[in-house]
Amino acid sequence: MKVKKIVSSWFRLVLAALLLFPPGSLQAQQDKIAAFKQALAQNKKQLAQYEWTETTIISMKGEEKSRVQKHCYYGPDGKVQKQQISAPPQQQSPGGLKGKVAAKKKGEITEYMQQAAALIHSYVPPEAEHVQAAKDSGKLSFVPMGQNAVRLDFHDFVKPGDSMAFTIDKQRYAIQNINVKSYLDSKEDAVTLDVGFATLSDGVSYVAQSVVNAPAKKI
Known about the structure:
globular; 4 helices; 9 strands; 3-stranded antiparallel β-sheet; 6-stranded antiparallel β-sheet; 30% helix
């Protein structure tokens, strides 16, 4: 999943968060921006030294339909490379009409999940013009989360009635989590995204888990 790449794509958005922190001197704001840029660059550099196994699971009506594992690492070009390491599922489809119905259903699910993924990618990472539009129209709010974190809430970000929120650690300038609530053709066809970040022992921040839900299809 491309969500692993978003850590390095949030500069403009988190920069807006820094400017929404409690007012201080211009020098103090500049110091925060400089600290954020330094922390972001250092995190990206350290993250590039790691390799990991990515597991993608698709479930429908609570039943696991597929599970794919990939070996992931950063290539010389700085982009994530992926190699599938799990064997393809060995499934025998029933013959006749029942088999055709099963194949059609599988195709519909695959197409639906592709549409849901495309929708999520319109939020993560967010387009700069959407961020600016939300700020200009008053649809961006700042919510303190204790002394060490701040949450930015966006409404009507890509579609009317949608929402996006992310929480930032004010001490380390690291993203803690991201939540998106949107829909495909209608609001009844809801799609949600929950991304949780974690920290390794050396302080490196990474995407620990990302979950896409499509309740209308029970996926």
